């Protein structure tokens, strides 16, 4: 089920995971990398202080509120709940943020996920906050087509707005699937253009306690993870370029004006996706 926030009563978890990316055409290109993420209850952020982790403080691992949501350093949970009310979504329970931490102050997050639950613990909305390597960002707010709980079989749709890869146009849309158990977490994304599925990505793995042992163990195994994320993005782009995949650059002609942190409302996104072929 996808409605188990805070398994074991914790307000934070470590996700030791793999990231998979697969391009289906014009050439098949696939890679898998190990990563680790944090999953944090936003209401508990003020209390998540460790010698090795801090919020808006320099630690081995940290989270900076200015990187998310309103990007002004304010509290994240009230901002998110205001967006949910505006969208008419009954997600009045815990809100969990899944994100790459800053490692010694540095991070690049291609996408962070805000998992928004109701008071019964059911997942009711997903905010996918996307950053590109050109310094732009956009947030896609998603809900089940029927307005009900988001289950493992639920497919969430939205239209693509933000230019992400120089090897893709700004067209089509995304399909998201979310699955959480007490021990595991998974988010899968399929991007479709006018010709059908083009790219499949996923991040999933094992949930561990947010304690010094598992967290520092993950950091010791991948001490350069934060830097490796951006290096790997450019390395894989070079491989695609060498394989002569069409390159559209940072400003493809058909791209809409980049959004600086705008949020796509869930109902509008769902309705738009229902009228067009789903794409990523």
From TrEMBL:
Region (Disordered): 256-280
Pfam families referenced in this protein's UniProt entry, alphabetically: DUF1365
Record field: compositional bias (Low complexity): 256-269
Domain of life: Bacteria
PANTHER family in the record: OS07G0153300 PROTEIN (PTHR33973)
Name of the protein this chain belongs to: Cyclopropane fatty acid synthase
């Amino acid at each position: 089920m996808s409605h188990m926030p805070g398994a074991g009563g914790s307000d934070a978890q470590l996700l030791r995971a793999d990231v998979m990316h697969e391009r289906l055409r014009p050439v098949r290109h696939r890679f898998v990398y190990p990563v680790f993420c944090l999953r944090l209850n936003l209401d508990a952020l003020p209390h998540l202080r460790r010698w090795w982790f801090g919020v808006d403080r320099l630690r081995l691992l940290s989270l900076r509120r200015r990187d998310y949501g309103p990007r002004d350093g304010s509290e994240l949970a009230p901002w998110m709940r205001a967006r949910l009310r505006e969208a008419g979504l009954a997600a009045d329970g815990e809100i969990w943020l899944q994100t790459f931490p800053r490692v010694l102050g540095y991070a690049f997050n291609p996408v962070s996920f805000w998992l928004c639950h109701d008071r019964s613990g059911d997942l009711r909305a997903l905010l996918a906050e996307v950053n590109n390597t050109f310094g732009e960002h956009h947030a896609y707010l998603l809900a089940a087509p029927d307005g009900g709980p988001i289950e493992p079989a639920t497919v969430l749709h939205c239209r693509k707005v933000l230019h992400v890869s120089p090897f893709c146009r700004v067209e089509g849309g995304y399909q998201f699937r979310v699955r959480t158990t007490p021990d595991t977490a998974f988010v899968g994304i399929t991007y479709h253009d006018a010709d059908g599925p083009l790219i499949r990505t996923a991040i999933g793995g094992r949930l561990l306690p947010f304690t010094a042992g598992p967290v520092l163990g993950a950091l010791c195994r991948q001490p350069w993870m934060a830097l490796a994320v951006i290096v790997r993005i450019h390395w894989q782009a070079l491989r695609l370029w060498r394989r002569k995949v069409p390159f559209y650059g940072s400003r493809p002609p058909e791209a809409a004006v980049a959004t600086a942190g705008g949020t796509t409302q869930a109902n509008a996104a769902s309705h738009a996706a229902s009228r067009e072929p789903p794409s990523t």
